[in-house]
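Quick one: co-fold with iron/sulfur cluster.
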Amino acid sequence: MNELDTEIMAGQLVKKGLTPVHDEESADLLIFNTCSIRDLAERKVMGKLGLLGRAAKKHSIIGVTGCMAMAKKDTLFRKFPHLDFVLGTNNITDLEAIVDEILYTNRQIHKTDDRFEENLDYLIAKRDNQVKAHVSIIRGCDKYCTYCVVPYTRGEEVSRSPDSIVDECKRLADTGYKEVTLLGQNVNSYGKDRPDWGCLFHDLLARIDRETDIKRVRFMTSHPIDITPELMQAVRDLPSLCEFVHFPLQAGSSRILKKMHRIYTREQYFEKVAMLRQIVPNVSLGTDIIVGFPTETDEEFEETYAAMQELRFSIAFIYAYSARKGTPAKRWKDDIPEEVKQERLQRLLDLQAQIGKEERQKFLDTTVEVLIERFNKDGKMLKGRTRCWKKVILEGDASLIGTLQPVQVHSFHHETLLGKIPQSNDLLKIV
Ligand code: SF4
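Sure, here it is.
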């Protein structure tokens, strides 16, 4: 969501006549679009703002936007007096006016509304990627997991109208985009705040599939409680919808899940995964895990370990718990020693690395459909992704960028599959 917000802000500024530059020394305007989800992300920005404050000459307008702006609001001015503006996640449309106001008045400006009004000009987004695009469908979250700042930094759920979303997807397809990722803190809640629209998440997916020429649709991210049988059937039935579902478990112990306010038990989570795998046998699952949540015992950590062993996610984002200011969990003692957290983290990372390796082995000598996105960093090989979000590297020329190709997998390196476009009679089976 932050990447998309950055693209929208950049689009607004370019429309206003500003030109992007690639080094901060020559910039007249510096904006830090921030994330508060983890402590490290905040500390990086604070460090950079401090450095700019100590620079001999203040050469540009400096603003902080995003979740850190929401979490810290105007207290940022006390710590960084050289800061010109603090603009919250719900005020992106105000960026142009704020920059003007600072130019004319030279005053510090702070604007952080609690609620998002769906009034953004999404079509203005300045996208660098010409093959795949992020499309916002819902902002905010009403779930209030006890460790998470998002409900406080992004506000409550506000869905975007289905007509506006379908229109953006149509325009993206017309300008050559092949893939969209529908974004929201919890996309599965889509439409629940607007029963008058009669369009829940699976209805929206069906409309995009039916009414646009987008070849691939993904979504990010989901709360397990809102992953419905209708959504599972949509993953099975809609040709454009990729067979990859991000299904954040967070912890394998029902007691810890309750303390996290995840509103499902271990058993309910397992049942839902089983149902999804029954309906969509070739689905790949991603997950998020937090280790070292306050009071997590060794036995409860072992439940998470066993859950990952059994469920075999294709990708897992695993973190050691860090308390976030303003959340209910911040009031609890962060009682798991750092070395224990790190040991648990490492065990899960090792387990996931082993599972990932075994899963990638299954792709050898199969043929997968790959959307070719761009050249790899070395500029020689092409890079793309399968429908189930596996990264693939292959040989080829620029004419293939933006096309869907069958790719025969011959090996893998770390998490990347390596392959080649086969002669038509080489095709084995499409995964
Ligand atoms: S559902 Fe996700 S975004 Fe919402 S509070 Fe929980 S972790 Fe945060």
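If it helps, Residues 132 and 179 are 5 Å apart (CA to CA).
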